[in-house]
User: Fold these one by one.
Assistant:
Number 1:
Amino acid sequence: MSRIGKNPIPLPEKVAVTLNGLSVTVKGPKGELSRTLPEGVSINQVENSIVVSPTSEKRTSRERHGLCRTLVANMVEGVSKGYSRKLEIIGVGSRAQVKGKTLVVSAGYSHPVEIVPPDGITFSVENNTNVTVSGADKELVGNEAAKIRAIRPPEPYKGKGIKYEGERILRKAGKSGKK
């Protein structure tokens, strides 16, 4: 049995969960998320917690047990607290700004790159170089942050580009000079 999967998921006061077979809907102060879980698990609400259990001892059922518990726990935490991912833009002339809801990034190309956020995602920029992606869905926040980083990934020689906050870039030595 999965060590992660057997832990019950505690529900905060302001979070409401609706279970309909394998479809789960979670409502809270930060929004509403819904997801259909794969076959092989069962989900039940016991008092102020949710319990995910495998339906059989088959390998696929045991594999999905911990995954489904984590997915539901991420949904509960997302609608109660929310998720955010921070990025740093490094380099002369590279900057970002928010126009309406759209994020406009100038990262050394001949044109600015515009990113339109999907529903439930918000962008904010501090000091033209620090971008914060926030929302209730952990998967969506991570995907949008990865799209922004993919505009100009950090290069190993001078470290210029867009990187996650706290990310360590392995640096390379440049060419050695002539003697």
Number 2:
Amino acid sequence: MGKKIKKTNACRILDGLGIDYEIKTYEVDEEDLSAVHVAQVSGLDIKMIFKTLVARGDKTGIIMAVIGGGDELDLKALAKASGNKSVEMIALKELLPLTGYVRGGCSPLGAKKNYPVYLDNRALTLEKISISAGQRGMQIILSPQDLIKAANATTAKLIF
């Protein structure tokens, strides 16, 4: 038996919905919180690791974009998908007060408020994806369809 993993809000949401998922823990490097590093230390393929970015739309306010770990968010595409004219990334200092999450541990599930979630449609080509469980060093592996259901996510092309 390994050490007992403390369930995060994201895990509890999935449990409440009866959604199957797997937890993957890894060693955190405070100097490198990138998805590429997560892939290296967790043994997961970078293609299946999805990061959650938090942005502010001029009409909708706070929104979350879930994109591939090696990809770059196209703000114009996110604006279009979310019904905004423009979207900008929030300042890092706003992340914790807005979501309850820290950089490197931001999950599209279980934030302080139910913000709209947009999932890059490339996720739909994968059997399983990995998202942050809501704390550094912990990933949730689940099907993209289950994430869409749990986060009430909208899919769209969000990357360049």
Number 3:
Amino acid sequence: MILEREKALELLHAHIKNPRMIMHCRASEAVMRALARHFGEDEDQWGLAGLLHDLDVEFTDADPLTHGPTAAAWLDEMGVDPEITDAIRMHNERATGLQRFTRFQHALAAVETITGLIHATVWVYPDKNIQAVKPKSIVKRMKEKAFAASVKRENILECEKLGLSIDQFAAIALMAMQQMPEYTP
């Protein structure tokens, strides 16, 4: 089953109170939808995984050993599509001890990470306007290990397992976030 988006948003707001985390989840949804369009995949399925991937982050206090599998278990109990819950479970490979191997898993791990890098890049722009950011700025920041040091660049580089260069991936992700009318840094 794929949850209706409104139901998914209600679930998100019931479990996450931090507005920045909610914005991160919504940005991940937008980028996952853009990737689904690019690859001819199911936009609702991929978007839902992006929207709900961090559903348990406040409950688990982002514990790397329980974050991801907890949200996946909640969604499994609700009868959500197993491909969605699997991607959510696998976006935090530390919790599972397994390697990602599907396009969907690689996409979610790369997407949820690049949204953080894009967000950090927006913050260094004087006007903090995402519309002013260019894909080359994202790629440049990607190479600066001290910039947004907590961003796992190896996860972003999983875009290559999707057949996308970092330049292509940054362009798709940035455009998706720029098209979000609700985006705020």
Number 4:
Amino acid sequence: MLTPQVGERFTEFYVLGLDGKADGYPQEVKLGQEAKMILGMVNHEYENTSYRVEVTIDGVRNSEIGPIVLADKEKWEKQFSLTPTSVGENRKVEFLLYKTGQMEPYLSLRLWIDVKQ
């Protein structure tokens, strides 16, 4: 008897603006002001998978989301906000997606924001 082959295993991981499009996220924010966006993922791992997301600004941890447990093909989207704690231009914001038990990020996303006084 043949066993059907499993396709490629992967997770969709994305950041959207508040309008639900792949643009329109904050590019400039005042110090202490929240930068709001939508964070999302879709599980295509063919099994229930647990994730967590670590958010850093210039390599410094800002926040963490999770655990998020998704069934295969399940989609998760949530409005998310981060609050920068120091002024600077081209601050690198990274969203690091981890599968439970992994020490290294499974996926990462980046965007840059200017933080004004």
